[in-house]
Amino acid sequence: MIRDKNPPACFIPFLNPVFEEDISRLFNNPFSYEPHPLCLRAILELEPRLKELEEIHNFGFGNEPERDVCGKMFGVLVVQNRSTGETGYLAAFSGKLAGSNHHQGFVPPVFDILEEGGFFRRGEAILNEINRETEQLENSGIFRQLEKELQSEVSEAELHIGQLKETHQAKKFGRTARREAGEGNQALIRKQLEEESARDHFEMKDLKRYWKIRVDTARNNLEQYNARINALKEQRKRGSAALQQQIFEHYSFLNARGERKSLGEIFSHTGVQPPAGAGECAAPKLLQYAFIRQLKPIAMAEFWWGASPPGEIRRHRHFYPACRGKCLPILGHMLEGMEVEQTESRTNTTSDIVILYKDEHIVVLEKPSGVLSVPGKEESDSVYTRIRVKYPQATGSVIVHRLDMSTSGLMLIALHAEAHKVLQHQFLTRSVEKRYTALLDGIVEKREGTIDLPLRVDLDDRPRQMVCYEHGKAARTHWRVSGYEAGKTRIHFYPVTGRTHQLRVHAAHPDGLDTPITGDELYGTGGTRLHLHADRLQFTHPVSGVQMKFEAQDAF
Prior knowledge:
The protein is α+β, with helices and mostly antiparallel strands.
């Protein structure tokens, strides 16, 4: 190995030699991996630099960090200099750090939209000016005055027309009384009454016409002013769309074959627009830098440094797979031409479901971990398909409720539509009693409680869920500790609602138990399996009305 006298600016050689046997033949899959030993070495050597960054960015290491202060996702890419054979690593951060895309020792962005004088800065300045002008028009005294004038004219019109209606109504009662009195020359009186009624009719017509003109004038004045505001908003909308399209075109990514595709081209096959921030994650930055500078990628890892963002579950120093919403299409292109480890299937096709009870109406079974409740996009094997094979006479939807693929335990199946309807109603009205047992990675000192944390999907990283008080759906869980073993907590969960990943998030989130379930690859540290088991189910039989209760044996 020869040490390069002029290495790429962001290439950091390892402090100690790397031997050929330390290098894997296959590049690790960024969406499912255990950190490569060389990545662990790289991160250990990078840590002093990360601690230096605390001077310019608040990673939230204080006891009570501000809600808008949090950590950052970093990544390392172990690479080999093709010309010298020297092995080292590259480092990157996702998005911006301390308001900047550039920091010494970290690879630059694929495209720097913050470049002074660049098209984005110019376009952003134009859009900001439109925003300022729009706000000035909306908040100006003229706008408020025109609104007030219209309201005043409408109120005045209603008042005067209402008063005249009351006057005319009183006169109408008077005419009716005179007509019924039958005194004097009836023909003359009838003529006088008709003339008076006609005058009232035209008087009301003239008054309504008068106020219509005044109200329409005030409304037109306001609408003309509003038209200026709406024209600016439409101009901003078109300008923003055009600026976004320019961004899509300027963000272009290489792959291992040297082929280049823009962000728009990459996402055109997905049927959706590239999400905000696509291409700014650490993984694409690292690979792009390596490809441009002819560095051979060997292994990559992404890890969180600092406090978790509000609503999400990120743990300091923990490793995470690349996000799917932003990075899956991009890395799918960039990894073409590389030998990449295949993702091991996490579905369990060998373990069969265990039938605990069956009659002509229902089935109670125990689902193994790793089996879907219903078929997925890429996996057809599931409880649903297995039940269809075991009980071909079954009709209707069959599945009454679901368990996550990683969760094992009791499931209730309906063998015909009427039973399904009755049982589903019990779940909807929360008359079904459920208990889950879990093993948590740590000690929960409090013995019992209730967690209320609303949940929604993380749109950029499905199927991860996040806590969101604005758009999340209510999620409530009662819990009780049942024991401790080898530094872990065995706990019973009693979910009131049934949101996706509810128990997993409520266990791991700092505002929940702050202790993830053992083996949780999404919200904890992963492992051979998720230690979450649905072990108790109590419901009313849909036909006989008998109360039924089932308990499963411990799964771990």
